[in-house]
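Need tokens for this chain, all 178 residues.
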Amino acid sequence: MRVYIPSTLRLLSVACNAGEIGPAPLTAYAVTPALREWYSEGDDEELEYAAMAQAARASVGLLADDPGIARRRVVIAAEVSAVPPADGSVELGDARLELHVVIPWRSVAAVHMDATDAIPVVRKAADRWEAAQNGDDDAVFALDSCEGEDLLWYATQEIPDLLAAEGPRGRNGSNGSN
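Here are the structure tokens for all 178 residues:
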């Protein structure tokens, strides 16, 4: 099953260099029964996109916790053999899962990341993350605005070059000046 793991450039670099995504437990997003029921008219591709969008939103929260990193959402797509069933406490439409395994790098299918053009939108959302979690309408709007930015797709063999181009702190926007 395909899962989407919210990340940042720094966390992606750690995972790539370690050869695994961890430690467990990991928050991931996938086509869950709750998501499938919510989007009952959606096909598999639309459901996968909805799960990835939820992971991208969670990536903004990781960016908010790490002000020194480039303001680009990162989502790691991986194939896992077993996904735990929902425990009944998830809301309708929720794609969130908790994985109790470390994911080997060989299971990574692709990485999705914002283009540099999205940095100002994502920065604003990351800066307002806490207010958005508290229901501030302007902050929620800033967070929702990220959904208008498409994530680029990178094959796994492109990741080392991508990380090298970004530099150790994510040259394209890490210092908040972009």
